[in-house]
From TrEMBL:
It comes from the Bacteria. This is Alpha-hydroxy-acid oxidizing protein. PANTHER family: 2-HYDROXYACID OXIDASE 1, S -2-HYDROXY-ACID OXIDASE-RELATED. SUPFAM superfamilies: FMN-linked oxidoreductases (SSF51395). It comes from Planosporangium thailandense.
Amino acid sequence: LRRPVLDPVERTLSRCVTVDDVRTAAHRRWPAGVRGYVEGGADGEVSLRRNRQAFSDYALRPFTLRDVSRTDLTTTLLGSPASAPLALGPTGYTRMMHSAGERAVARAARTAGVPYTLSTMATTSIEDVARDVPGELWFQLYVWRDRQLMRELLARAQDSGYRVLMLTVDTPVTGLRVRDAHHGFTIPPQLSPRTVFDMARHPGWCLRMLSGPMITFANINGDRGQTPSGVMQFAASQFDDTVTWEDLAEIRQLWPGPLVVKGLLRTEDAVRAADAGVDAVVLSNHGGRQLDQTVAPLHALPEVVDALQGRAEVLVDSGVRRGTDIAIALALGASAVLIGRPYLYGLGAGGEQGVSAVIGMLCDELRRAMQLLGVSTVEELRREGPGLVRRVA
Ligand code: FNR
């Protein structure tokens, strides 16, 4: 007879085999508005769907009869060791997915030995995360209209010990998230019959939200400070549609450590970023949340890797859900992948334990994929990549 699992989080996670299972578990816990916010893409969600489709456009061609008894996922990311070619990308308003929020995600990342990127739009402050969960922390910056505020954020991240700065450049304006509009979704939630009914159907989520601190825009107003009415509107008003390469040059001057530019899809932009002295680029369409109908970042990858010739590391995100996805990205020349929604599913389903479970699943799947491909190290996977993967659609 199997020992009954009493802890509800443990019970939920023990039933999950894949990231998709964790996603289903998170969906059960989230009100429709939160579900829509996490899952939604922009406009017709073509970019969102294409991100997943892109991985099916490649086929793997494994080597056989090789000793794969000692597989090693460790690698180096921007000069620091990582236990896997994986980093947690920045996501805003994380405490809305679970009151444990950014600290829980950072802790799970630290335990797993992979970097965590705190978003400008975080609901826990730069200082609080660094103090409570010191480790390999990256900070994601948006160029705000208020440049002084942007410089302050950068200085605070540096003072708090964040090693890597990630500048997101695909957001001169916010994409139209149709699901949010349909749900009447706002942060903080505005009470209407619909939102009250929605939240009442998820009492666990409501109780956790009430027991934890309110969702605040921690990096702008102070963690315990006032919540501006309509946080999302405030943020939207702060995105700057005049940002140019000159801003990148200024940020390069201001930030002494590794600098990453996130949100590129064009080869000449990646080359120009390398010329400007960035250490890595992240090919990304923001998980399909900004411009709709874009090329999938995965499809942009081979040309960018070829053009950069190792002058900057190339990371990719948007649509990574399985270990084989990571294997394909690495075989196509990526140094690592970022994940966004997968760890939010983990957080929603089970707080820190859920995030750990998701990272664990992806690493186990990647290890198995490498063994079945006949490669033992991340370096070998990237070196043998051209022979291992073929585009079939
Ligand atoms: C994001 N993403 C994001 N990116 C960023 O640079 N700053 C941010 O604040 C956010 N916020 C955010 C919130 C939510 C709910 C999601 C789902 C995504 C984009 C994120 O970093 C990453 O590029 C995508 O999530 C990658 O795609 P997948 O893994 O979600 O498919």
